[in-house]
Amino acid sequence: xxxxxxxxxxxxxxxxxxxxxxxxxxxxxxxxxxxxxxxxxxxxxxxxxxxxxxxxxxxxxxxxxxxxxxxxxxxxxxxxxxxxxxxxxxxxxxxxxxxxxxxxxxxxxxxxxxxxxxxxxxxxxxxxxxxxxxxxxxxxxxxxxxxxxxxxxxxxxxxxxxxxxxxxxxxxxxxxxxxxxxxxxxxxxxxxxxxxxxxxxxxxxxxxxxxxxxxxxxxxxxxxxxxxxxxxxxxxxxxxxxxxxxxxxxxxxxxxxxxxxxxxxxxxxxxxxxxxxxxxxxxxxxxxxxxxxxxxxxxxxxxxxxxxxxxxxxxxxxxxxxxxxxxxxxxxxxxxxxxxxxxxxxxxxxxxxxxxxxxxxxxxxxxxxxxxxxxxxxxxxxxxxxxxxxxxxx
Length: 394
What we know:
The chain is built from three helices and 27 strands.
């Protein structure tokens, strides 16, 4: 009886510590979703077939339409009979988009995916957001976004956060980030090829200062569309792996005006030049492609993480967004062949709440690439470099 009492007491102490720290304990395993995976089935389009891309961030445009942002994208011919990408003539623009539409509940039609590419009159495929209109080595990687209501125009705008990238032969990656770019789209419900937008650069950002603000953006009130004067959270990355947080109005953000922005520091919320403030890291090992959301079922914030070239995806949860204590559990172990790190590397776990069927389900994606580019054109490799969609029951 004494032993049992000690065990129960220890369990109670552990529970109370976790509760006090903000941790939320979750157990389970993610599973692949064949239904959702069909969203990224290849659609034959001659020499301009979308054949895979990374980043794979989703942004809710309205109740039935969702924008997907892809990074470097394989575009070319698809040999359907051989289930094989055709290497000859393939191109790789730095960014393509997709509009994923969901039918209303009264209709039994499936989800629909329409890929959007910047194709010139000559048939060349360019990146969607070139900083220089003709230079593919000077572009924006749009990585995150949010729709907000513009009270002046009485219309919805779309804010996109991205990295301004330029080629740099001295960098190990072959490029460097100049700054965080903010793009404001004034007609986000039109065809993306007809978008009207403006872009500005956030000060005090880029590789030179080890600070960016394009990890994630979300309304402070979950599931509510913000207006241009209500503050939103913007998650950034400092010193490559530290998660930092800013709150700012969409109006100021669209103008790259940080004067009234507030930054989460070790002394609480403060205004000022972020480089002169002691920014408080919310989470260690934060990646540039990490997303976060709030779950009403868990009554907590959650995020999925994956070490670069790791073989597992971790689910981290906390009921305190501003705290530093996040519980962690293995949500998914990569299957073969992608767990072979000598041939593949996997990354970019993203959250997609709009794809969940109810509050008891979390939806996430990740991407695996091959260390030998030519391998992507082998038979049987058509699932490589395509976002993999998983569901996680809570």
